[in-house]
Amino acid sequence: MRQPGSDGSRQSPHDHLHATDRNGIIQCSSNGSARVGAMVADRELFDRAIATGDFVVGSYGTGAVSGKAVIRFAQPVFDKG
């Protein structure tokens, strides 16, 4: 469900979500297929999430596709098989 943006619009509260493989290659994205097959923009954040195996918070930046201000987060999901 979309929540109103800070300007009163019906904008989504997130810029986008990606799922990547273990190498940081985007496999699916909430932005559609435009970035599928590309490397994640914040490799340091990705590497830290894999190394710690935990949720990590990145730095403030600009979304590569939207141009909006973002704070990046990463949460690794491991296959226990």
Structure report:
The chain is α+β, with helices and mostly antiparallel strands. The protein has one domain (18-74). Helices cover 12% and strands 25% of the residues. It is built from 1 helix and 4 strands. It has one helix at residues 43-52; strands spanning 18-20, 26-29, 56-62, 69-74. The protein has a two-stranded antiparallel sheet with strand order 1-2. The chain is globular and about 35 Å long. The model is unreliable at 1-5 (pLDDT under 50).
Can you list the strand order of the major beta sheet? Answer: 1-2
Number of domains: 1
Cα radius of gyration in angstroms? 14 Å
Helix content: 10-25%
Tell me the number of helical segments per DSSP (H or I, 4 or more residues long).
1
Average pLDDT = 83
Number of strands: 4
* Termini gap: 33 Å
What's the short story on this structure?
With 81 residues, the chain is an alpha+beta fold. It has one domain (18-74).
Tags for this model:
two-stranded antiparallel sheet, 1 helix, 81 residues, single chain, disordered N terminus, alpha+beta, 4 strands
Topology of this protein?
Layout (H helix, E strand, L loop, with lengths): L17 E3 L5 E4 L13 H10 L3 E7 L6 E6 L7
Antiparallel strand pairs: 1-2, 3-4
